[in-house]
Amino acid sequence: MIKLVATDMDGTFLDGAGQFDMERLKKLLHSYQEKGIYFAVASGRGLLSLEKHFADVKDEIIFIAENGSLVRFHGEDLYEATMPRDFYLLTFEKLKTSPYFDEKKMLLTGKEACYVLDTVDETYLMFSHHYNENIKKVASLEDITDEIFKFTTNFTEETVDAGEAWVNEHVPGVKAMTTGFESIDIVLDHVDKGVAIVELAKKLNLDMDQVMAFGDNLNDLHMMQVVGHPVAPENARPEILELAETIIGHHKDQSVIAYMEEL
Question: Which InterPro entries does this UniProt record tie to the protein (predicted)?
Fold first, then answer.
């Protein structure tokens, strides 16, 4: 019997316009509360962005944010993994040696805000505002006093796979994963959505066979591997479709919330 349902956002829960039906979600959450089912949003987006999207119901759902670096429920952090200051400064220096990396297309997400260098590419900054809240410019990463969860950086469509592979091969202590949109997230090497959902299940005293997850991209891979019931929309990457217990309709048709309503 399913007791926890977790879903990725972009390409999964959100429709073709990057939106969802709040009134429909409210009805679903009311039904889930009666059935004793928890609902979690598992995203590469930052907590600030997720809380804004789900402002009307943020006290009723669980947030797995920053690609698994933070799990929050009822205002309490159930799990978190932040980068020590010396670590993210050293990681930045290492990234600058990559032939694929452009520091003008880089963003760091922290507990209080998100950060870009004041030399940031303005097109990248506009793009970032769609997925992040409270973005601040800094002259140097050394000016940041916040606790940092992850780096996000963009490549071209042709170089994103090579850029991800370079980071995983050459930067110690981190894990890079494709999130879509020619972008990768760089988190601590022991962090991802799968790790976070296992920790969450422990906190809720659930077996993994009681957990269902929806995902479409490579940053959902481990989550889909560890849950008892992985479900993918038909638009998911082949690696995700191969793992799925069930394949449903396209995310553009709100197939995920429709499937959730049948539980």
Answer: Cof, HAD-like_sf, HAD-SF_hydro_IIB, HAD_sf
The three-state secondary structure class of 256 is: helix
The range of the structural domain enclosing residue 234 comes to 4-81+191-260
DSSP per position, 198-230: HHHHHHTT--GGGEEEE--SGGGHHHHHHSSEE
Cα–Cα distance between 239 and 221 in angstroms, integer?
Answer: 8
Per-residue pLDDT tens digits for 53-66? 999 999 999 999 99
155: amino acid identity, one letter: F
| Gyration radius of the chain's alpha carbons | 18
Distances (CA, A) of 254 to 33, 44, 51, 146, 224: 21, 20, 21, 37, 20
Q: Do 113 and 156 share a domain, yes or no?
A: yes
Cross-strand partners of 247: 232
Residue that is last in its domain, among 173, 188, 203: 188
Contact (CB, 8 A) for 140 and 118: no
- Asked if 90 and 163 sit in the same domain, the reply is yes
Q: What phi, psi does 40 have (nearest 5°)?
A: -130, 140
214 and 161 assigned to the same domain: no
Decide if 230 contacts 245 (C-beta within 8 A).
yes
Look at residue 180 and tell me whether its pLDDT is greater than 80. Answer: no
Tokens of 132: 């992040």
Give the pLDDT score at 251.
Answer: 98
Helix (H, G, I), strand (E, B) or coil at 19: coil
Last residue of a domain, one of 133, 159, 188: 188
